[in-house]
Give the backbone structure.
Amino acid sequence: MKKYIADSNFVLRKIAGEAVLVAVGSGVADFRGIITLNSTAEELWKMLKSGATKDELVKMFCKSFDVSEDTAAADIEETLHVLEEKGLVKSE
Amino acid sequence: MNNSRYPMNGTFELTGRCNLSCKMCLLRVDHSCIKKTGLRELTAFEWIKLAQDLFDAGTLNLLITGGEVMLRPDFTEIYEAIAKMGFMITLYTNATLVTPEIMSVLRKYPPHKIGVTMYGASNDTYNSLCGCKDGYDRFTDGLQQLMTLPSLLDIRTTIVKDNVQDLDAIKAFVNEKYGDPDRLHISRFVCKAIRGGICHPEDVRLTPEENVYTIDAGLVSIYEQIESNEIVKRFFNPKKIENTNIQCEGTYLFQSCKAGLESFVINWAGRMYACELLDKGYTEPLKEGFQKAWDRLPEVYPKTKVIEKCSTCKYSAICETCPANRLAETGDWFGVPEYACREAQLKYTLLSKIGMVE
């Protein structure tokens, strides 16, 4: 099954209470700004740091947040699509 | 005191030493000067530890500067460790010491921004002003290499008597490289040396009149154009400039510039100041811990006082004074720097002659 992993060229920081991603290394070539994450995206990113399949992500999400499996699956699908498109997440 | 302080912007001044000897440098020190102070430069380990403290405290923006940072043999070690952590990094350098080893690290971990200082448009000027016979060649070589990085890159200069003749050439150089004159930043106020700096900028800086006519040449040009056109002159309605130097007793000294509220500097000896131009007032993050040093920082500065002359001054809205340059120029937190007064008066006169102010 496809495993998704966060690009190590983006570092998760907590700045004035907000979760943000800061590009480092080769990430700077593509993006010199910061990306703010809401609380669910922040949790998702933490899970993606060590890599996870979609099923693992859905399972962990349902555990952490009070959502149904279908809702979690749909949200994760959409978020992964955006993150992959922007080059922040890779799949293997 | 503003209770919403947050250490968003940090500066690491890795060294006060430099390979150039620019006559107008505010803070350059050398080995013998450092020895006399009884202080020492921080080690790489200490800088990396401090960076970790900044990470934990939530600092986002980090400026790495000197002196000349690339003079330190351990620069690549310090830089690489810090660059991995996740700060928005700006690097200041004179670009004359760029080596393949340094470029290798910068390519791996490019800064988000680079500010490169340019002191003249020829080796003669670099020799006269900075004591470096091939300084211009080294600068152009270094700049060429740094421009291959994905970092946003600006040129910074300080215009004094020894390089004023190169100002047009410097502007042309920047325009040629970038097609954008806004990529050149000219220091507005050259004040006296601080924190034991060994140079005498006051001996080489332009007079206030020269400063306005050279740096604010645009203002002068507007004045001259309007003066020569009777029709245009009629359309200007004079505005009254309000005295913005609102003074009250007992408030935080750097409220308007946010120094020490959102920003801090840690100098080459590990002392934390609210601003890099400050000569006095510091805490010691390595001794007392970063958080305590940050928390305590406002306490080491005096509170505001009404400065009689400034509180009634009609030029205050365009005056370039601040507590740091008051201190540097006069030795008094509440002194009145004559240099700034003359400049403000001249700019006001020009503005009033073109009908911009009453």
Observations:
- The two ends of chain B are 36 Å apart (CA to CA).
- Strands of chain B lie at 9-13, 61-65, 88-93, 113-117, 152-157, 184-186, 263-266, 272-273.
